[in-house]
Amino acid sequence: MATTKKRKNKCFFGLKVDRQVDGDTMNPDVMKKVLAEGGEGAAIASCMQCGTCSGGCTNADRMDLSPRKLILMLQRGDWETVIKSDTLWLCSSCYICTSRCPRGVRPSDVIEAIKAIAIREGIKNDSTRFSEIFVELIQKRGILFEPELMQKYGGIEAMVKQAPLGIQLGLKGKMSPFPAKVKDPKQFSEALEKVLKK
User: Fold this and answer.
1) Is the dihedral of CA 166, 171, 174, 178 positive or negative?
2) Angle ∠(151,123,82) on CA atoms, nearest 5
3) Residue whose C-alpha is closest to residue 142's, from 191, 181, 178, 195
4) How many CB atoms lie within 10 A of CB 52?
């Protein structure tokens, strides 16, 4: 009768830690949840933990989980750690991590998918509030009007505080005092409806 041997985690260079070498501890359920939310091409399972994403991340020093570690937690199925991470709300979606990944992993898309799940699951903080207001305003006119965002998020006090910067941006032509409009509102509405149906 054949006996099954328990697989041991691989160990290189004397490091007695699991480095996700061949998926010994991968949990596909959590990865599938994120991929289904919109990270279809994110290739989470392809991550080899090289750290290139974290090395290029401009906000990594402020994050509790670097992009590399966030992907590792997803691979292992540690959903609680992922969903409570500040990294989700500190990512500026600059896509440096995604553009530099040698394996085609898309950490930026992964983070956006997790954020959508977090908001749907009822996680509330300043960042989710900002995100909800941002989306609401984009849906309203198809393009962001920064003074309106500032007013809805921070109130009159925040607008007064930021007024000197707003005036400088206005004088340099970087921000209009009037809301802009999308070129084809009907086309925008149709595209938005299509996305919301998904």
Assistant:
1) positive
2) 120
3) 181
4) 18
User: What is the DSSP code string of 42-96?
Assistant: --GGG-----HHHHH-TTGGG-SS-HHHHHHHHHHT-HHHHHT-THHHH-----H
Asked if 83 and 65 touch (Cβ cutoff 8 Å), the reply is no
What is the torsion angle, in degrees rounded to the nearest 10, for the CA atoms of residue 51, residue 116, residue 93 and residue 157? Answer: -130
Q: Do 58 and 66 meet the contact criterion of CB atoms below 8 Å apart? A: no
Tell me if 175 sits within 8 A of 166, measured CB to CB. yes
The two three-digit tokens of residue 46, written as one number: 């392809």
pTM, to two decimals: 0.68
Q: What percent of the chain lies above the pLDDT cut of 70?
A: 86
Nearest to 88 by CA among 131, 144, 53: 131
Spatial separation of the C-alpha atoms in residues 13 and 138, rounded to whole Å? 51
Summarised one tens digit per residue, pLDDT across range 71-102 is 999 999 999 999 999 999 999 899 999 999 99
Dist. CA 88–CA 48, nearest whole Å: 21
In the structure encoding, which two tokens stand for residue 195, read together? 């996305």
For residue 30, how many other CB atoms are within 10 A of its CB?
Answer: 19
**Residue of 97, 91, 126, 112 whose CA lies nearest to 39:** 112
Among residues 133, 138, 92, the alpha carbon closest in space to that of 112 is found at 92
- The amino acid at 7: R
User: What phi and psi values does residue 150 have, to the nearest 5 degrees?
Assistant: -60, -45
